[in-house]
Design goal:
mainly alpha; 73% helix
């Protein structure tokens, strides 16, 4: 399967939306603090990856 950088960005944005939905579905209780922390870290990592892919996409790179 071959994907363009734009397609990867689109998938990352979908993942970000799902991770955000998951974050807000976990109730804010002491018992869930670790779960919310893990989901928040996932959201951060997706954001950072999205920024990097956007940057290389704007610079005109392609993947093969």
């Amino acid at each position: 399967m071959t994907m363009t950088l734009q397609e990867i960005l689109n998938r990352l944005r979908e993942l970000q939306g799902s991770a955000t939905d998951a974050y807000y579905q976990v109730p804010e209780t002491d018992e869930n603090e670790n779960a919310r922390s893990y989901v928040d870290k996932l959201r951060y990592e997706i954001d950072m990856l999205t920024i990097e892919v956007e940057k290389i996409n704007k610079e005109g790179y392609t993947i093969s």
